[in-house]
Write a structure and sequence with these properties.
alpha/beta, single chain, 751 residues
Length: 751
């Protein structure tokens, strides 16, 4: 047994703990007595629900000191005391004063009650206080300090909310770039419509400067400036997320750099910087990159190129940096005429026409319709590799080529020099992503309409006078209204949490996932919404959730989640997951490993689905190259992957040239030479083994199915096909190797 002096010391400690909170308890109790609280609803705060509770485990102890001091507690009586404690109004008010809203209070109480009732050994001070209450020597409110201690262990953010709010205070992003603020920068805004020469004048200054950086929205544009600059005799390097190309054969850095805007350095000093398409500062996903470039580039002169609608916002942003803006306005160099009638039929398409569609299905159907009349078409859409786009553009631009018609998405709006006589809008409805990350179908914006229509009649081409119309007569009035409207004023610039900010959050909230940290950051962030908005983080969170179970350091996890991935492509997402697993095991992603996992070498596409799959394979190779510049030790075969891309690019080009035949094959059920569906990239290597292992059993059940699904070796779609094949093949075991589509055709002939 412990001595009485030890017991007295413990009781004194507990009393001191209670004494610290007693004035608050008295004050709250008094205020509640004089105020009527009429059932006010304290709805669960959406922010509080983001904080994941940390399980509080009792500390194992061989000796139950509390029981030795005061005896064993009766659990039934203990439950009554806890319920009485939690029902007191003054306790709820005091908890609220300490940062626990109704939602957190309930979560904490459920955990604290379970802890007290299920723990074999309670902390000595808590045991003694509860014992005194049960014996009538204390009040239920005496439990408060111990309950609060438990709540803070469950929700660590209660101890550091002020720090978290400071970290996510984004009201003055200009102050994030002290080197730029230490300079006197000259800001020149070249404002004008498409084909007005604004970018030309900015690039002239770039090429004559001692040093410079060009920041473009697309790899194609960065590559074009890289080639043009070197051709003009100004050595220039190319830097994109997936590529580093130096003008110097020895790999020494040049004084000029052409890069995609996300890759812009804010630590290097330049004489001149050009930021192209500055109106994209309002882009819901990528706007943060333009904001970062504008506020952070260390250049004596910064030349901005873009729409007049961005002028007021740029002026406001430059007020926060203490810089003046010089505006240079430009007018269109060639005439653009709006036709009085829609074409109404694909038979009326003429040489030099570009039909603009906003979906792949429309691209396919329009291409097929035009080629059915004996006319050859070039096809350009966002999913194609850059070289394939350039090849299709070159074919269309070549006056000696028989291809005189272009079918394209709004991918032609930037980055390609095209000799278009007339732009025809096949539709004016386009899928868009709203502020909440939700997909919507809406009429294209004034900005998009002007950008796309402006591609007709380009200065210096064979068509110096352009025209624009619609396919459907009912769309023509809407198009005229759009083109007659001034560009929408841009009012906000995008922001995004940095890796450093998220690392600070993780320090304070070590038990939270990356996706959860991003959610908390965005919800706690303070933004000057008269100038800025928080960019959409749904794609980032999608990747973070996908790889949450993979053990990775936080910085590496953040980098992986910044990868440019189309989450609609299951094959690309699956390979992304495999890349992260290899990294987590510290195993190199070799050329041989990559070939095995993507089914290399590939075959010429026979159907549209084959072509779509090859585009996904190209994206996987792009992802490898992107990772190779961030994790060079594990993704070390970049040059071999580039060679693969060149080969794959040529195969995809063959497919695009024969796109009508691919569509026809898809409809007639011609067997695919490669993988039949983009979900089924691993089907060829796994199907036969799977069929043999399941011989004599029923498909879709058992541990093998579950294991293959869990490992990502088959998908639910693949499982359905395998079930169907199993039913077809059970009559003859020799039929396992047959192509099911061929088998079906053979049956048709016997009818």
């Amino acid at each position: 047994m412990l001595k009485n002096t030890q017991r007295l010391r413990l009781l004194c400690g507990a009393a001191q703990n209670l004494q610290k909170f007693q004035p608050h308890l008295n004050r709250v109790a008094t205020s509640l007595r004089f105020e009527q609280i009429r059932g006010k609803k304290d709805d669960s705060n959406s922010l509080s629900s983001l904080f994941i509770p940390v399980p509080v485990q009792p500390t194992p102890d061989d000796i139950n000191v509390g029981a030795e001091l005061t005896g064993t507690l009766n659990k039934a009586d203990l439950l009554k005391v806890l319920n009485k404690f939690y029902q007191k109004r003054e306790i709820k008010q005091l908890l609220s004063d300490n940062g626990l809203d109704q939602y957190l209070q309930h979560q904490a109480y459920v955990s604290f009650r379970r802890y007290c009732l299920e723990a074999q050994t309670l902390p000595v001070d808590l045991h003694v206080v509860i014992s005194d209450i049960l014996q009538g020597a204390g009040n239920a409110t005496d439990i408060f300090p111990y309950f609060l201690r438990h709540a803070k262990q469950m929700f660590p953010h209660l101890e550091c909310m002020d720090d978290l709010r400071k970290i996510s205070d984004l009201r003055t992003p200009a102050n994030w770039y002290p080197e730029a603020r230490g300079m006197t920068r000259k800001i020149v805004f070249h404002a004008g419509p498409t084909n007005s020469g604004k970018t030309y004048h900015a690039l002239e200054r770039f090429m004559t400067a001692k040093s410079g950086v060009y920041c473009g929205p697309l790899k194609l544009l960065a590559n074009e400036v890289f080639n043009k600059s070197n051709t003009r005799g100004t050595p220039c390097d190319l830097i994109t997320g997936e590529e580093r190309n130096y003008a110097d054969p020895l790999g020494n850095a040049s004084s000029h750099v052409s890069c995609t805007v996300e890759m812009t350095s804010v630590n290097t000093s330049y004489e001149v910087a050009v930021i192209d398409e500055i109106q994209m500062i309002r882009d819901i996903g990528r706007g943060w990159a333009w904001t970062r470039a504008l506020l952070g580039i260390c250049a004596e002169e910064i030349h901005l190129c873009g729409e007049p609608g961005a002028i007021d916002l740029i002026r406001q942003l430059c007020l926060t940096t203490g810089e003046d803006v010089e505006i240079r306005n430009y007018k269109r160099l060639t005439e653009l005429k709006i036709e009085d009638s829609a074409i109404g039929s694909l038979d009326k398409v003429e040489p030099g026409d570009c039909i603009v569609c906003f979906s792949k299905n429309d691209i396919y159907s329009v291409s097929r319709g035009i080629e059915a009349s004996g006319k050859e078409v070039a096809v350009i859409y966002g999913g194609l590799p850059p070289n394939t786009k350039l090849a299709q553009a070159a074919k269309f631009n070549d006056v000696d080529n028989s291809c005189k018609i272009l079918v394209a998405t709004d991918a032609i709006g930037m980055g390609l020099n095209l000799s278009i006589r007339r732009v025809i809008f096949y539709s004016l409805i386009k899928p868009t992503i709203n502020e909440k990350g939700e997909k919507e179908m809406d009429t294209i914006s004034v900005s998009s309409a002007l950008q796309i229509a402006g591609r007709a009649g380009r200065y210096g081409t064979q068509w110096e006078q352009g025209s624009v119309t619609t396919f459907k007569p009912e769309d023509l009035h809407t198009l005229k209204t759009l083109l007659a409207s001034p560009t929408e004023p841009i009012t906000q610039a995008g922001l995004h949490p940095t890796a450093e900010q998220i690392e600070l959050y993780a320090y304070h909230l070590p038990n939270s996932s990356l996706s959860n940290l991003m959610d908390i950051f965005v919800n706690l962030s303070t933004v000057d919404d008269s100038l800025y908005f928080m960019c959409n983080i749904e794609d980032f969170k999608f990747l973070a959730d996908m790889i949450q179970h993979v053990p990775l350091p936080l910085r590496a996890r953040y980098v992986f989640c910044c990868a440019p991935i189309n989450k609609k492509m299951p094959f690309v997402c699956t390979m992304f997951l495999k890349f992260t697993r290899q990294y987590s095991k510290n195993e190199r992603v070799t050329f041989d490993w990559l070939c095995r996992n993507i089914g290399w070498p590939v075959q010429t596409p026979k159907t549209i689905i084959d072509l779509v799959h090859l585009e996904a394979v190209f994206d996987v190779l792009d992802l490898y190259l992107w990772l190779s510049y961030r994790f060079m030790d594990l993704f070390g075969d970049a040059q071999l992957v580039r060679d693969m891309q060149k080969e794959l690019d040529a195969v995809i080009q063959q497919g695009v040239v024969q796109i009508t035949r691919l569509l026809r094959n898809s409809e007639t059920g011609v067997s695919s030479g490669g993988t039949p569906d983009e979900d089924e990239f691993s089907l060829n290597s796994n199907k036969q083994n799977y069929l043999r292992e399941r011989k004599g059993s029923q498909f879709g059940r058992g541990k093998l199915t579950e294991r293959l699904l869990a490992q990502g070796l088959i998908t639910p779609n693949m499982l359905q096909e395998l079930k169907k094949e199993w039913k077809d093949n059970t009559s003859d075991s020799n039929d396992f190797g047959l192509d099911p589509t061929k088998k079906t055709r053979r049956k048709r002939k016997t009818k």
